[in-house]
Amino acid sequence: MLMPQGRSARVAMLSFADIDNFGDVLFSYVVEKELSRRMENVTIDFFTPTDFSAHGRVYRSFSQHMPFSGYDALILAGGEVVHCYDERTWLPIYKKKNQLLSKNFYPSDIVWKLVEADCRFKAWLSVGVRPCGQMAEGLVCDVLNRLDYVSVRGALSKKILEGEYEQYDTRIKITPDLGWLFPGLVTDRVPLTVDSVGEPYVLFQAHGITVEDAASIAKQLVKFQEELGIRVFLIPIVKPWEDHESLALIRSASGGKLVVLSRDMDPLDIITLIKGAKAVLSGSLHCALTALAAGVPAGIINKWQGTKLQDIMGQQFRNEFLSPDYANVLSFLNKLIVEGDTASERLKLTALYMRSHVEAAFDDLCQKIQDECKRNACATNGVFR
User: Fold this and answer.
1) Residue 138 maps to a domain
2) Does residue 383 carry a pLDDT above 80?
3) Which of 33, 177, 180, 384 has its CA 20 to 30 A from that of 312?
4) Same structural domain for residues 190 and 143?
5) How much helix, strand and coil, in percent to the nearest 5, is found in the chain?
6) Domain housing 145
């Protein structure tokens, strides 16, 4: 519902879409849609650590020294982005992109330098937080004190920011992951099929696997495909970690019985494929989460059992569908097919519940931006429409 307002709002949205990862790209789609639904004629500009363009959208490289004073709000939205381990995550990714990194450019500036930009209203929306060791003393506290709105996407992220179990900071809200809104981005899109026959299919994704892992996974997937008569398609979705190479290993180990889909699909097309699947099993959080948001049974198998996977799956009481062991591929898929037949209503209710809380967070955030617009207009003797 559109909120009444004075002059049009200008918003700068910050993200890591420039790594061209499924979820990171789609966060900007969600923010654009949700803000436009609530504020008339809002203008949204998109910023990432480096200049980037994809799927018709342009992202400008961020610096806190840019003239942000003309914006009513700066919003860092979505993803597991709050951490200080450039050498662990951001540096390897940006080196692959042939970006020259120096003391004048750190991808995490978009997280921590946000508060230094010349803009009245600054927010973190539904961000994930990694354990923040080796961080400058007092940095988290200083940044939280300078943000006007803070929401994280799970209880573990909240506790990491708070720094201790006995403390509960009411400033730090919990908002479900923005991925709960991904299926709603394609409601008017013509459904895709991965096969002209239109037969039932499941989607599988993995990355960072060994040749031995690939052989085990292929054997299980082929057995599932042959015994249940449900096609298995391997879907590349995590470009920063080159998952298409891992999936090619699985295809090869299957003797060509499994098919790898194109790595260059539009992210909205990927959503439609996920929505049409019988089940999804992935190492990618947002691949699995998009499925669950659409009421499609999904599980996660990933050797890395990080806080984001524990948080998301724990929120939904789906711990039995989170594993680091690829020996569970066949059993997980079989259980997911059964779940789709027996628990589809529960999956849809969970998705509705999560989506309602994300939408409530956008209501709250947009109202605060509107209030800031009014204060800015009063401060500059602006004229309301």
Assistant:
1) yes
2) no
3) 33
4) no
5) 45, 15, 35
6) 10-178+356-379
